[in-house]
Amino acid sequence: MLTIRGISKAFGSRPVIEGADLEVHQGELVALLGPSGSGKTTMLRLIAGFEDADAGEIRLGNRIVVHDGISVPPERRKVGMVFQDYALFPHLSVRDNVAFGLPRSRRREGRVREVLERVGLGPWIDEMPHVLSGGQQQRVALARALAPQPAIVLLDEPFSNLDPALRGQVRADVRAILREAGVTAILVTHDQEEALSMADRVAVMLAGKIVQVATPEELYERPVSRAVATFIGEAQFLPGRAMGAEVETELGRLTLLEPAMGPVDVMLRPEMLVIAPPDGLPGPASGTVTARRYFGRDQKVDVRLASGT
Asked: What is the number of H-type helices and E-type strands within the chain?
């Protein structure tokens, strides 16, 4: 559906994206995940046509929209965009906001009602944006992006302005709407939980490069580097010596997901560990609890091993 090959972009002498590759399949939701300044939003703007690439190629379906300095204008790419601040017109009703990018025809009113029903806002068709909640405004922006039946929908940090209590439900709603519509979409986010919970696959972008593209499970359990591992959730690293399927560490002999030989660093996620009193579960290592922080659904416990780790 979307193919990106060797895309690069610099602003002045500062490179922002360097030789990035990415493929997004039909009907797939891919999260473009990375810290601030990693080039995520610039990549989205290159796909939409709001910025011109310095090098590389972008294909939408069978159409080349970027190649060798040639760039198809945004209005001819069939790309829908949901901005971080929603970018709704405050002086237009919900109906007119959604209809804004549609050609005038007898089908226009029907299409507006159809997409508003799909996002659950049919009863609010004649309201003004300022009377809607943040979650409702976000769905109006999504309806406007879906109305022209785009080839792909791009979402730029669409949940960052929502209250934490509302964010989870709106994420689930948007995910369901995109899935029901069968729309191909790219979600830009710096929120690891958001990317892992919403996306079919996650593309991790660090310092202008896409360093790993994988399912959420593979990304979390098998990151390609320490940088990816530490960016995706909590990670502890222990030195060890691998002997095929096992590795000897300060915590004893552990089983590796992939065989290796020689000195290695072993990544451990917190939920892989079990702690117990000295007279409780038998274990290969003893330690001292130095801190505990309780968060309700979980807690964080710091343990110092005999070596000082």
From this structure: 8, 15
